[in-house]
Here is the input.
Amino acid sequence: MRRIIKTDEDGNIRIAGNPEKEIWMTAWEMSELFNVSVTAIQKEIRAVRKSGVLADYEVCKYIRTENGCSADIFSIDIIIPVSYRLNTFYAHSFREWLKSKALSGNERERRTVFFLLGKGCSC
Here is the structure.
């Protein structure tokens, strides 16, 4: 079983699933996480993939689900840039959660985090 990220109505983030596995989510699961339509998620995924920054074979897999259907799933590497392309309370909560995770831990240890903002710009 893969891991997914969930948000409650207060914007609290939690990771569900096997802690030994990586985070992979369907477009439908991402739409629930960010509270947007599946179409909006697919549009942003296409935009990120079109930028050429991420290799498709690294961020997208085609799997058979438990109910026998097949679906594309996407890694955390594409979930993060998609969250920065959406403007919802839940996407904002997810971004804040990411920043808190990146900045938590030993204060003496410095970390550098780069985010793809689109159109080839990064900060």
In short: The longest strand covers residues 70-75.
